[in-house]
Design a protein that fits this description.
It is a single chain. It contains eight helices and 13 strands. It folds into two domains: about 90 residues, 3-Layer(aba) Sandwich (Aminopeptidase), CATH 3.40.630.30; about 140 residues, Gcn5-related N-acetyltransferase (GNAT) (Aminopeptidase), CATH 3.40.630. Strands 1, 2, 3, 4, 5, 6, 7, 8, 9, 10, 11, 12 and 13 form a 13-stranded mixed β-sheet that branches. The model has no long low-confidence stretch (mean pLDDT about 95). Helices cover about 30% and strands about 35% of the residues. It has about 270 residues and is of the alpha+beta class. Strand 8 and strand 9 form a beta hairpin. Bound molecules: coenzyme A (COA).
Length: about 270
């Protein structure tokens, strides 16, 4: 079955595929993925899609893979493996990052991915007191945010950063004596507001950014916290949000670039 790159005209087919696997319909997120990533699909001869995957490349250094979906009726026939191999070959990056469900993990292990930790979804009413340490970002801050992000993320993602001001509902920064030291964003996804990315010098700064964003959120909040910052997980749990679904964080190829200790939350688990 032929794998080809698809565009946003196939959004409804992607949503139908996701619904078939009991994933929620996330049109806003898919809209961004079609803009910043390469979406590959396999047509179902009876209409719609048999499978899809999204690969977002950050230069030649890193790519993130997400939204890996194969319709149940086509399951265990090799489509998932073919989609992954195709996306990785097209990206050709030194490293590939993803977070795997229990369905996907064995397949990714066979393809040479190794586990580097875990990630949990935290979702609920989240009302930490605002810190007042951050301020809303302005267009004048975008160059400094991009420079900080490149240092921490370790690979250029101008397409992501260029879209943050319109894609997100809030974008906040914290300044130090030498300019911007941290930034964080919040964006709407169906009934939740997702907080991420969060880049900060340390845990206190990350908490301040997250708290200030939360003060401006009226919906439930979603945080995808990996195990590189256990204190942040404890803080969130202490504020009454329980751990939800677990995924395995996996990497293929070279180790992740950048200064990951300063990356507290991803933009999304589909992109890194
Ligand atoms: C994960 C998912 C994409 C895998 O898709 P898939 O097309 O079934 O994947 P493949 O067929 O390539 O591989 C799945 C398994 O089938 C096996 N397989 C492949 N071809 C086969 C064949 N012809 N006959 C029997 N088994 C086969 C593979 O070896 C693999 O085995 P394993 O699970 O024991 O490792 C699919 O299960 C899915 O959409 N799940 C729900 C959404 C999800 O969790 N996505 C992953 C997000 S990280």
């Amino acid at each position: 079955m032929l794998i080809r790159r698809i565009d946003a005209t196939r959004l409804d087919d992607c949503l139908a595929l996701a619904a078939g696997r009991k994933w929620s319909a996330e049109p806003h997120k898919w809209g961004l993925l079609f803009e910043i990533g390469d979406v590959y699909g396999i047509d179902d001869p009876d209409g719609g899609l048999a499978g899809c995957v999204v690969c977002t490349s950050y230069g030649t250094r890193l790519s993130g893979i997400g939204m890996m979906l194969v319709a149940e009726k086509f399951g265990r026939q090799g489509l998932g493996g073919q989609l992954m191999k195709h996306a990785m070959a097209e990206a050709g990056t030194e490293s590939t990052w993803l977070t795997a469900t229990t369905y996907g993990q064995p397949l990714y292990e066979k393809l040479g991915f190794r586990s580097i930790g875990d990630s949990y979804i935290y979702r609920g009413e989240f009302r930490p007191p605002a810190s007042g340490a951050s301020r809303p970002a302005s267009t004048k801050d975008m160059a400094a945010i991009a420079a900080l992000d490149a240092e921490v993320f370790g690979a250029p993602r101008p397409e992501v950063l260029g879209r943050l001001p319109v894609f997100t509902e809030q974008l906040r920064v914290i300044e130090g004596t030498e300019g911007i030291r941290g930034y964080a964003a919040a964006w709407r996804n169906v009934d939740d507001t997702v907080i991420g990315p969060v880049v900060a010098d340390n845990e206190t700064m990350a908490k301040n950014l997250i708290s200030d964003l939360a003060a401006g959120i009226s919906t439930t909040v979603r945080l995808d916290l990996d195990d590189t910052h256990p204190e942040l997980r404890e803080w969130v749990e202490g504020l009454g949000i329980a751990r939800g679904m677990r995924t395995e964080v996996m990497v293929h190829g070279a180790s992740l670039p950048g200064d990951r200790k300063r990356l507290f939350l991803p933009l999304s688990v589909a992109t890194g």
